[in-house]
Specification:
The chain has helices at about 1-10, 30-35, 40, 50-55; strands at about 25-30, 55-60, 65-70, 75-80, 85. The protein is α+β, with helices and mostly antiparallel strands and about 90 residues long. It has one domain: SH3 type barrels. A 5-stranded antiparallel sheet has the order 4-3-2-1-5. A hairpin with a 6-residue loop joins strand 3 (about 65-70) and strand 4. The mean pLDDT is about 85.
Length: about 90
């Protein structure tokens, strides 16, 4: 009977979450994904080119958003993790 309970416990374990990005990763914004998003419609149309060229560093991750610091004297920004890719 102990074998059956072990099998039940294993099958009920939650699936592992695969993280796309981690703190410290170098990233850039993927132009097509961002321009077709709801966030781009609510933002300025004149975006700086450096966000698409990269690299930016992921500082913090909360939910679906990542705080990114660019290697320029500009403020950090929060970007949806679906819009950024590894550099």
């Amino acid at each position: 009977m102990s074998e059956q309970t072990a099998k039940v416990e294993d099958s009920q374990s939650p699936p592992k979450i695969v993280k796309k990005l981690r703190k410290g990763d170098l990233v850039k914004v993927e132009r097509e994904k961002y321009l077709n998003s709801l966030e781009s419609k609510a933002s300025d149309d004149n975006l700086p080119e450096y966000i698409f060229q990269g690299p930016g560093e992921v500082l913090l991750i909360k939910g679906d958003y990542c705080q990114v610091r660019w290697r320029r004297p500009v403020p950090d920004v929060w970007i949806n993790s679906d819009h950024i890719v590894s550099y």
